[in-house]
Amino acid sequence: MGKPGLAAQTRKKAGVLDPIIALLRWIWDRLERTLLLAVKIVFPSRFISPLGFLGMLTVIVFIILGVTGALLLFHFQPLFGDCPPAAANTSYVPSPTCNQAFNSVASINNQVDWGFLIRNIHYQASNAMVLLAVMHMFYQYFAGRYKLRYEMLWVTGIILGVITVIEAYTGYDLIFNIRGQLAINIGQTLTYYSPVIGANLAQIIFGFSFNDLAIRFYAFHVFIIPIIMLAIMSVHLPKNLVLDIPVSSAITGIILIMGGLFPVEVGIRYDPNQLTQITFPEWYFTSLYAFIRTKGLQPFIAGAIIPAVFVLIFLLVPFFDRGKKIAMIDRPFWVGLGAAALGQIAIVTVWGFRAGNPFQVLQSEDQLLIDPVLFAASLLLATALGYGFVYAFVKWRKAKIEALRAAKKPLPYRRVQPYLLSRGEVFSLLGGLLLLQGFLDFSIFRAFLATLNNFALIEIGMVLVAFAATVHIYRVSSQVK
Amino acid sequence: MSDDEKKQSSEGSVPSPPASSAQRQQGNLPAPAKNPLISRRAFLVCAFGASTLLAIGAFAPPSLPSWNILNPLIPQREGPTQVTTWNDLDSKYQDAVAAGNLYAPSNYSEFFYFPYPVTDSPYYKNVISRLPEPLVNPYYPNDDVLKHVVAFNLTCVHLRCIVNPGYGSGEFRLLCPCHGSQYRLMDAVPVAGPAYDLGLLPLPRVKLSYDSNTGYITATDLDGEAGIGRTD
Question: Do B156 and B149 form a contact (C-beta atoms < 8 A)?
């Protein structure tokens, strides 16, 4: 039977699904007028470097956070509850209604089916989102994509990055463990110290009581800040988006594996009747923690002005770098500046985890203070080395290329020859990966039966990574020898 | 300026615009107005702007601004509150002495919330401690019971973390677990850490009274403000 005959036959026979298909087609045609389909999503058929679409990976992690967060909403209680006063002796048993937010997080972690997995994915995805956003920013910075009509994307991106960190902050405060509670106190005081509107602003954001605070941060974390992020994203995302299925799947898998390998603990319950303890903030705040602990630095300067100046410098970069060239080799100053910023971030973040003497383990309150001379010296050293080395390297490289050009010799760009798989290799790799996935699926089932939650999470992540590898090999198999 | 005022100013005083408008109405002629006081476009823009401002203004009475919807409800301060009994506190101290736990003052301290109850007060956590033997409360040197007792608000004046009674550098202190501020347990004056380096105020003091009949120690007032400090 020929094609025209088939078409005629299907046209004649009215299927049951025809109205539904017509409706879907009607909707699809109208969607073309909306933002939804105005965005062009490209599914690359060849492997391209993930560094180029780190922003899209951040969006994917944002979606993961949205889905897991929505699942956690079913069990989280944004309430502090009532804590009857008790004496601070060791035989004290906390009341069950005290710190309900923490209790609900603990029950999500320990009792709710799949709760441990979802919570770990949510936590590791939040870390991944901050990390990917920072990596995305630095890649775009070094690639020179902040000027020459990229200004809008750059400025909204920096704002989006800051809001991402604030969103993460409201998230880990909601657990109401000691770490969250101390972070709340510090955030409240830094807001309070802001000029003119500080006191009012602190009251509006943090409320007056713990119950106020729980419900306010809940509102911020699950609704207000995500809506603001979506609004800014609508201006930040470019028209053409690269959605690479294997890399996205691999990132998701890595988040799950990290969740299994480094499960986040619930932490020490904050109980107003108990002693508080030394805790570290999350890794994206240890830099501020180091500044605040530096001797003689005013807290508002250390915790707000210094980071604000750092962010502002990045925000204003496109308005100072007016050059028309975007290659790294033509921008030694700006590339050096970026390297210096990376060095500063690294050294200050590490300082935040260490005692005043960085070679000691932090154990008691006496060790918290950081010597300003040592701190500033290490910061300056990191800045100078980062800037100096990179600036010198870029200059040297440029001189070398120009010398080669003058001598009409080939430029020293290494061209990577891709390894081409043979047909047999493709089949055996695909077969092996399918077998691995099958084995892992069984193993996940067994791990759940044995309530080995961490192990199951690692294995689910491995399945996703194996899926990524399968799709990738399928993709490159079109280039077999 | 309201819309009415503007209409008056555009129609009144100067004679030529009303005349021209009357002319237009009668003869349906194209506007021949020469140098009108205010052009139609400017009038419309001003009216629109003024109306917008007035509409916004309706939401901002100075006595109760509408953004107050965002403010939390502040609970009422409690009056004098019984905190603990002297016997209770002293027996804990004697136990600690007997057990050799003297250098962990949390063993003979009690946390309490005043002047707001526990859940209403992230920053109104206080401690009442039995002072170890040679120390005397400088605020009640002549009271037989209260000279052995101190009570302070525990909100660190540096960044409002909650401090703990502890021991360090050969002295009984209140230690901050966040950034290492240290206060003397006797009078809560900063002696080390950022609170000392930055010259911040001592912690607020809870004023106490003792009833010798019932043995109760009562918190009567807070001297200073939580997170800010006391100025005496």
Answer: no
Query: Cα B194 to chain center, whole Å?
Result: 21
Say if residue B15 is exposed, middle or buried (CB neighbours under 10 Å; 0-12, 13-18, 19+). exposed
Q: Which of A202, A45, A362 is nearest to B228 (CA)?
A: A202
- Give the pLDDT confidence of A10-44 residue by residue, as tens digits: 556 677 888 899 999 888 888 777 777 777 788 88
Q: Which residue has the tokens 């915790």?
A: A303
What backbone torsions phi and psi does residue B110 show, to the nearest 5 degrees? Answer: -135, 140
Residue that is written with structure tokens 């509408």 in the block:
B66
- Which sequence spans correspond to the domains of chain A? 53-83+93-282, 285-413, 423-479
Contacts of A87 (CB under 8 A, 6+ apart): A273, B84, B88, B110, B111
Nearest-by-Cβ selection for B70 from A84, A204, A275: A204
Q: What is the Cα gyration radius of chain A?
A: 27
Q: For residues A339-350, give the mean pLDDT.
A: 90
The complex's ipTM works out to 0.75
Between A186, A295, A365, which is nearest B159 by CB?
A186
| Architecture (CATH level 2) of domain B81-223 | 3-layer Sandwich (2.102)
- Which B-chain residues 48-107 have CB contacts (< 8 A) with chain A? 67, 70-75, 84, 88, 92, 106-107
Question: Which structure tokens are listed for A15?
Answer: 């299927």
DSSP string across B129-146: EEPPTT---TTSTT-TTG
Model pLDDT for residues A351-381, shown as the tens digit of each residue: 888 777 777 777 777 777 788 888 888 889 9
Determine the Cα–Cα distance for residues A453 and A460; give it in Å rounded to an integer: 11
Mapping DSSP to helix (H, G, I), strand (E, B) and coil, where does residue B151 land? strand
A378: contact with B, CB 8 A cutoff: no
pTM, entire model: 0.81
CB-based contact A276 B198, cutoff 8 Å: no
Lowest mean pLDDT, pick from A333-342, A366-375, B5-14: B5-14
> CA dist B132 to A23, B208, B219, Å?
82, 18, 21
Contact B122 A298 (CB under 8 A): no
Could you tell me which residues come within 8 angstroms of residue A440 by beta carbon, excluding any fewer than 6 positions away? A459, A462, A463, A466
According to CATH, the topology of domain A53-83+93-282 is: Cytochrome Bc1 Complex; Chain C (1.20.810)
Inter-chain contact A208–B193, Cβ cutoff 8 Å? no
Asked whether the beta carbons of B139 and B168 are under 8 A apart, the reply is no
The DSSP call for residue B230 is -
Closest alpha carbon within chain A to B177:
A278
Write the burial class of residue B148 (CB in 10 Å: 0-12 exposed, 13-18 middle, 19+ buried).
Answer: buried
- Which chain A residue is nearest to residue B164, measuring alpha carbons? A275
Interchain contact, A208 vs B92, CB within 8 Å: no
**In this predicted structure, what is the pLDDT of residue A90?**
53
Specify the higher pLDDT residue, B116 or B63.
B116
Tell me the angle at which helices B3-11 and B16-27 cross, rounded to the nearest 10 degrees.
90
Output the pLDDT for position B28: 60
For the CA atoms of B59, B65, B71, B74, what is the dihedral angle to 10 degrees? -140
Among the partner-chain residues B92, B158, B177, the one whose CB lies closest to the CB of A278 is B177
Nearest CB to A85 within list B112, B122, B177: B112
Peptide bond into B115 cis (omega under 30): yes
Question: Which residue is listed with tokens 């989102």?
Answer: A129
Which band of pLDDT confidence, cut at 50, 70 and 90, is reported for residue A466? very high
Distance from CA of A218 to the nearest CA of B (A): 15
Write out the residue limits of the CATH 2.102.10.10 domain(s) in chain B: 81-223
